[in-house]
């Protein structure tokens, strides 16, 4: 709006030429109002185009008019600033309402209080809140600026653009103004006023990249309407700063207009120019060109990142700008896509429609072949259905080579520049064989899609080459024999299969038996009779004896050729070398036989381990009544034979009248674990006869495990019960602690220190004592009872304690004459373990 008003300086000059100076109080009497920011009044803190200028006294009527115009301009600027600032504050209030679950009034009060407490303006705090919530490019730019050290200190070189205190506030204000704008010119004005003017920039231009490689001036600020009209369209191929940025696909800088390509307003702003491309999904849709009146110093990376954020803001504004008049029946994107499909289908050459596929960072990773026209013929011989729906790199992986088709498509999609070539190499990979052809190709971008059209030059030679490759891969050679003349024709592959030079005479069907293995001559005879006498297609396999002594396994297939009177005139067929397949089958047969033997040996080892384990520890064992104790044992083997483990237990009265109680678990499965279990169990029995305590017994057993066994490790709990005073001395080697059940309450016995058996040469074990009472039940077990993949060990132990109390109650309520056995059965039945490991469980009840 203000751009249409005459400059106040021009009106003042005209007035001075006509009238004398008026009294100073005439102009001073004009009220100077400013549009206050609704509710908070924070817009006055927003950095806009610079300090306010107050018009001095102007003479006469024209002077009053000039002062009025200047005041109206100032009010318009302040009203625009208030609206832009209000938009930021309303966004911040909305975020606070959602986070604090409060009303609008309370959110505004909170915003003002937080700003006062942080000693910042309300607008700066609103921008920070929006940055934290958005986490977008503008927020990243603000963080980079702070990390870079902020603005230049006082007294530093001021030739570089002066940075404001809060770049996030400038960028957010420009974003808010752009969102409220009606057209792209408003967006350009907002970007210049709020973000670029504080950096001493004089103008900003937003260029829209067109599919044909041209540029359209979508919006500008800082240039006259006449200059913008002269540059409203830039044809393809014309060098400009914006075109340089599109070609480089990166930010470009020119120190002056004279040192760079021609551009808009080159006589008005002759200083530094920076062009920044931007877009979505790897597709560059616009360029933001920033102009200075004089040459500026190199901007720091944080400032260049702000320029990139502003260019992205312009790209979003262009993307959301309406392209069809209101009331249209179909969306513009759908209409364009339908027109594009009609265009591709109307082509007389093979055509593909490529759609970009983006990765997690928004960059182009591949192109989807979303559509092929009816004239599409794959130069590699594949049907159109095998290509449509695949990605470009899946269908043509070798196109990713430098300078290949993929790189060309990516460039056309990014820049919008069409590409044409009369000699483009196309390569496809079929069964690991590269097939190459030369084609005339054309690429062009239409919206977010790329149309690819090609025309292969020599179709017949391409098909012949494809057939030759197929024959070479399959080691297939064709032949034909004219039965009327007796002449036979071979291709090069058949001569190679026979080991004959190309000048040798071909072998006819009646001579075939001479060249095969004697044991295969009957098969050759049946093959020839089927062809010549029964006149039916036939095939057979035989061993070919070559002149060089090499034997080849050959498969031959042929069919008779009949004339119009059903007379046999010729035979056509093919030879195929199947030697590799034959020897592969032989190797597979040997492998299968060896595998079956190995499986049989493994099954035998598993059966032996299981028999050994059952011999030492039967699955079901009746209760033992020792002096003062009733002992019941339950053993649950693993569900699979190969999972046979090394769980073991023992309960025996020693010569000292004390009772040895132990349970252990040897690491691993199979025959090694079973034999290790037997060795440790028998060793502990022998050591216990010495009368030593449990800690000493485990120390000796550790030495046996470490020195006298072959890489065996195990955990164990060893206890000695004295019936005289009902005292239980015990120690453990890395094993789970026992569970004590007394008067219906269960708890784990506090664990003692002790490393697992076999880990170290010498190890000390801690010994503890339990004073048992009549009716107490002590349970010793292995980890197969409680271990679960989805729980910690402590959670599993807590579950066992709770299950023990329930099981004891169930056994007593059932009035079973043997509640201890019923207790153990209940624990095994309701155990939640999921490791399929074997389990050993001992219940010891004090009588």
TrEMBL record:
SMART domains cross-referenced by the UniProt entry: ANTAR, PP2C_SIG
Region (Disordered): 1-62
InterPro entries: ANTAR (IPR005561), Bact_Sigma-Reg (IPR052016), PAS (IPR000014), PAS-assoc_C (IPR000700), PAS-like_dom_sf (IPR035965), PAS_fold_3 (IPR013655), PPM-type-like_dom_sf (IPR036457), PPM-type_phosphatase-like_dom (IPR001932)
Gene3D superfamilies: PAS domain (3.30.450.20), PPM-type phosphatase domain (3.60.40.10), Winged helix-like DNA-binding domain superfamily/Winged helix DNA-binding domain (1.10.10.10)
Keyword entries, A-Z: Hydrolase
One Pfam family hit: PAS_3
SUPFAM superfamilies the record matches: GAF domain-like, PP2C-like, PYP-like sensor domain (PAS domain)
Sequence ranges assigned to domain PAC in this UniProt record: 538-590
Alphabetical list of CDD domains matching this protein: PAS
Positions of the ANTAR domain: 69-130
Record's compositionally biased regions (Low complexity): 1-35
Name of the protein: SpoIIE family protein phosphatase
